[in-house]
Amino acid sequence: MLRRANRRQNLLVILLITTAASILWAQQKEPRSWERVGPLGSKLRNTTDAYPLSGQANKAGWVKYAPMSDEFDGHQLDPEKWWPKNPSWFGREPAWFDPANVRVADGKLHLSMKKNEPPDMPKDKGYHTYTSAAVQSKGLVKYGYFEVKCKPMASAGSSSFWFYHSTPNLWTEIDVFEIGGRAPGFEKKYNMTLHVFKTPTEKKHWSKGGVWMAPTNLADDYHVYALEWDTEKIKWYFDGVLVRWVENTHWHQSLTLNFDSETMPDWFGLPKDSDLPSTYSIEYVRAWKRPGEGEVPLFLDTEFQHGFLLSYADSSKGRAVEAVLDTTPNSTGKPAWRLCQWATNHSLAGVKPAGNSLGDLIYENEGKKVLVAGPNSPNADLILEIKGDSEYGQAAREPGQPWPHLLVEQDAPLIYTLDALDAVTLNISFRILHCKNNMSPQEYDPSLHAVQFQLFLIVKNVHTGSKDHGDYFWFGVPFFDNRHDIPPSFIAKDVGKEDATGKLICTIDGRSVNSIPPINGNWIAIQQDLLPHINAGLKEAVKRGYLSDSTAEHYAVANMNLGWEIPGSFNAAVQIRGFTLSADIKDDQSAYGLSGEQE
């Protein structure tokens, strides 16, 4: 969507721009490309919504990317995912993006264009006569497969699906389609364009456009439009059939996802009054990514195949290692994970591992069990079980008494400051295998006794010039708490036992990542960008006086732990699979330079 500040250009300016663009294009390495000519062939059959229409068998290995997928089956736009506008652009003159023209109804997202002038229209900026609509993702994405089923508006107002982002040094754009549903001569045109506005070495705009002619008017019916974007090629699909590809020479920037309608006087012409209001309706947007595509792992060995350094039960011993638990025959090198068993009465040190017919390796004693699944085991990837009846015996925990932990912990091997990231994506599937309260109703105090399965990150100041250098706060993601269907948020000072750190604990509301209670052994699958929550946690730590430096470029995720805490006598087990915590690094950003164990 090429945006120009001044739409009233005379012929001389147009000629100059065209000439300059031609000279610039001649200096570019023109990307290789292909475009379909003629019909699509046999219509593809949709057998599952789980995968793209163009690849129903999913031989490409696509995994659903929830942050940019939406079935629009509610009554309003999801505020966690979308802006009901374009936050940095008012629209293409004369039509102004009016949030009132965005609505969700009948299982669809509707963007309307109208002939009206609301009181808050910024006429001093060139907007008049028309209002249109825009929706933009709150997150950014790099690479993936993006599919929408939609019906363009039947007017000369555009119906568009596109990606873009602008930084001081980089501004690129991918237009999946720009359709003039009733613009004369454009009714059947599937317009697809790539733009480069600015790179560190290119300062002038150039583009690579393409068109496929559909057999019928595009505004007459719903069709499936899709974009496949990876490091090598950008591909466009219509009803699941490839219609174009372009070599990816420039489009390696994280971008926002956008739907909008615009007036395009110089291209589609202004809409006829008789065609307004007109509506662009989107039945769904579905996104998929290949695992790890466009992202870097923040932590290693997330299938837990290379063993554990076993901590002492006494947390005052710090990082001292009581034993090494081998989980893979003939493994070499230092394990990435520490297995923390703080405050246990039954150390796993000295326990000999057992195997089973599935190829699992099991360390177990009267207080706990750790199972690392074999390559083809249904127990993949890890089971953590803690036995409160043995840990506590016959007595319930008293105030101030330490409580047993069973969790895996790791330092980030490389440190990326928060400002260098576009996303921190958590992927995990888990199920609670069992959870039994061993305390009598008279002994059990919910304010004192609980069993919790959760993820914690240490978000640490890594900037040597900051007065907060080395200081940190705990950022938590709660998955299970016996006291709640879904754990609520929790913000407080870390206290309650001798080894408490005194730092701020900022645990987000469990509903931010999951809406299904983890009961009856049901699997819970989570995919969530944690970066906005981490940044909010940093602000909260400064607001409450635990930190004084709020600069995102001074902080990084330095450590994580995942597992059980049981400040009450419970027997509980969890099965974990598909755990990753990865970062989408901003373009031209690299690691901060710290590595190895953090204090």
Overview of this protein structure:
- This protein has helices at residues 11-27, 388-392, 531-543; strands at 33-35, 63-64, 82-83, 96-97, 102-105, 108-115, 130-137, 144-151, 158-166, 171-180, 189-198, 206-213, 223-229, 233-238, 241-247, 256-261, 278-289, 296-297, 308-311, 321-325, 337-340, 354-355, 361-364, 368-372, 382-387, 405-411, 421-437, 452-461, 472-481, 490-493, 504-507, 524-529, 555-565, 570-585.
- The chain folds into two domains: 49-289, Jelly Rolls (Sandwich), CATH 2.60.120; 296-585, Jelly Rolls, CATH 2.60.120.
- By secondary structure, the protein is mainly beta.
- The protein is 6% helix and 38% strand.
- The strands form three sheets. It has a 17-stranded mixed beta sheet that branches. It has a nine-stranded mixed beta sheet with strand order 20-19-21-26-33-28-29-31-30, with helices on one face. Strands 18, 22, 23, 24, 25, 27, 32 and 34 form an eight-stranded antiparallel beta sheet that branches.
